[in-house]
Write a structure and sequence with these properties.
Pfam families: LEA_2 (PF03168). By secondary structure, this protein is α+β, with helices and mostly antiparallel strands. Helix content is 17%, strand content 43%.
Length: 247
């Protein structure tokens, strides 16, 4: 006789709680409970399909990064050096210009005369010396070349001011009828302007570094000379003339 105690442990299979009954599965149906997937056996001889990084690509990336860092450091050092040194071009001035035996011939369209000029050169740099080599200078009336000559080389120390003299000469140099007319017109008012040019191969030297060479071009425009009617002589008027320097 079966016991009616609901708290009695169930025996047998399957257990139906509280008297609930489920219909049996139809004949030929699959197992009604969840079945785990079949176990895949592990092949002890299979290799791990892990991909390893390309060593050459890693080396190239590291090399490029190192080059970029080195280039950046180099330019930073160069910029700091420029701030410390801060090089400046020398300053040129014409402090004196005289003329003698000045004569312009209308018949032969030529000019004769002797010019003596004094240039003042200032090196404003605190840590840089300058050497001037192969110095060539020319004298013009407007764009007409009157004379040219060569100046001996010289050197300048730091914060140095130097002077050098130049003598130009022309003897019956052909200048053309138009230039003759313009000079005669200027002489009539007692004032003739000349242009002076200097081209110098200069070496800029900072201690501890290789010298840097620059081709300096100096333009001294509209240097006015007051000319008297007797003897064709005259001197600079208006004080020193500052020149423009290009490299």
């Amino acid at each position: 006789m079966a016991s009616s105690d609901p708290y009695r442990p169930a025996t047998g299979y399957p257990f139906v709680p509280n008297g609930m009954h489920y219909p049996p599965p139809p004949a030929g149906s699959a197992y009604p409970y969840h079945v785990p997937p079949p176990h895949q056996p592990t092949n002890p001889y299979s290799y791990n399909n892990q991909t390893y990084p390309n060593q050459r690509a890693i080396f190239l990336r590291r090399l490029i990064v190192a080059l970029l860092i080195f280039t950046g450091i180099f330019f930073i050092i160069l910029f700091i050096f420029w701030l410390v040194i801060r090089p400046h071009f020398p300053e040129f001035r014409v402090t004196s210009l005289s003329i003698s035996n000045f004569n312009v011939s209308s018949s032969s369209s030529s000019v004769t005369g002797t010019w003596k000029a004094r240039f003042q050169v200032s090196n404003p740099n605190k840590k840089m010396k300058i050497s001037y080599d192969e110095i060539k200078t020319s004298l013009f009336y407007k764009s007409e070349l009157l004379s040219q000559t060569v100046v001996p080389p010289f050197k300048q120390g730091k914060r140095n001011v130097s002077n050098f003299d130049v003598e130009y000469g022309a003897t019956s140099s052909y200048i053309g009828g138009r230039t003759v007319s313009q000079i005669n017109s200027d002489e009539g008012r007692g004032l003739v302007s000349f242009n002076l040019r200097i081209v110098a191969d200069a070496a800029l030297k900072v201690e501890g570094f290789w010298p840097r060479r620059r081709l300096l071009r100096v333009y001294c425009n509209d240097v006015e000379v007051g000319i008297s009617g007797n003897g064709g002589s005259g001197n600079l008027t208006g004080g020193a003339t500052r020149c423009s320097v290009y490299a």
